[in-house]
Amino acid sequence: MANVSRPNGARPVFTISGAPWSGMVRKYPVDSSNATAIFRGDFIILEDDGNCAPAAAGNSLLGVCVGVEVNRAVAATEHPGYLPASTAGNILVCVGPDVIYEIQEDNTGGPMAATNVGSVGDMVAGSGSTTTANSGHLLDSSGVIAADASPGTAQLLVVKLSDRLDNAVGNDAKWFVRINESQLALGQAGL
Q1: 112: phi > 0 → left, psi -120 to 50 → alpha, else beta; which?
Q2: For residues 65 and 54, what is the distance between their CA atoms, to the nearest angstrom?
Q3: How far apart, in whole angstroms, are the C-alpha atoms of residue 175 and residue 79?
Q4: Which of 150, 135, 141 is nearest to 63 (CA)?
Q5: Digitized pLDDT (tens) for each residue of the chain, 191 residues in all
Q6: Which residues contact 72 (CB under 8 A, 6 or more apart)?
Q7: What span, in angstroms and rounded, lies between the C-alpha atoms of 58 and 93?
Q8: 59 FRET partner, CA 20 to 30 A, in 34, 44, 160, 191?
Q9: Which long-range contacts (CB under 8 A, 24 or more apart) does 14-21 make?
Q10: What is the pTM of this model?
C-alpha cells in the first residue's frame, strides 16, 4: 500500500528516552511585521527582537508551533489553529531539546531509505492549510546526508522511520526526527 501524502508539519510524539511527550510548551509573541502565517506543526525561530517567526531552511530552530493563543479582541486569532500573516499574537511552542517529532518527507530527491537513519537534513517550508490549520513543513529528502560527514550543518537528525501501520519506506514516508540545530543549544551562536 502506498503512503498517503498528508503533510502536517512536525508533530511532537515522544522524547528521546521513549517517554511520551508531556505537552510542555512555552508561549512566545509574534509581531505584526511577520508576513507569513504560522500553522500548527511549523518549525519556529526566535528573532533578535524576542518575537517568533516561521523557520526557513538553514535557520537554527527554536522549536515547533503546537497552537495559537486566541485573543477575543483580535478577530483574526479566532480562526481555529493558525495565526494569520501580519497579525500580532502569541503562539505555543514545543522547545524541549529531547523531543522527537514525526514529519513527512518531500520526495524531491526520491524517497529516503532505511539507511538514512542517523543522517541529518533540513526542513522545507511548505504552505500551511487555512482549512485544517496544519503546517506544510516537510523533511527535505534531497539534502539528507550522513551525520558523520557534516554533523552540525543541518536542522534535523533522522531518528527512524515512523512505526505506524500506514507507513513504509517510499514516497511520502513519515520519519521521526529531532532538532539538530537548536537556538537553545549550548555554544550556539547568538540570534
Answers
A1: beta
A2: 9
A3: 29
A4: 135
A5: 689 889 999 999 999 998 988 889 999 999 999 999 999 999 999 999 999 999 998 899 999 999 999 888 777 777 667 999 999 999 999 998 899 999 999 988 778 999 999 999 999 999 999 989 999 999 999 888 776 666 667 899 999 999 999 999 999 999 999 999 999 875 555 44
A6: 78
A7: 19
A8: 160
A9: 14/99, 14/100, 15/96, 15/98, 15/99, 15/100, 16/98, 16/99, 16/100, 16/159, 16/178, 17/98, 21/94, 21/96, 21/99, 21/100
A10: 0.91
CA distances from 86 to 30, 70, 89, 100, 166 (A): 9, 15, 10, 30, 37
List 27's β-bridge partners, or say none. 92
Q: What is the DSSP string of 10-37?
A: -EEEEETTSPBP----EEEEE-TT--S-
Which amino acid does the sequence have at 68? V
Strand 156-161 relative to strand 119-121, pairing: antiparallel
Q: State how far the Cα of 186 lies from the Cα of 181, in Å rounded to an integer.
A: 11
Residue labelled with grid coordinates 485544517: 132
Which residue has 501501520 as its cell numbers? 165
**What is the tally of helices (H) and strands (E) in the chain?**
0, 13
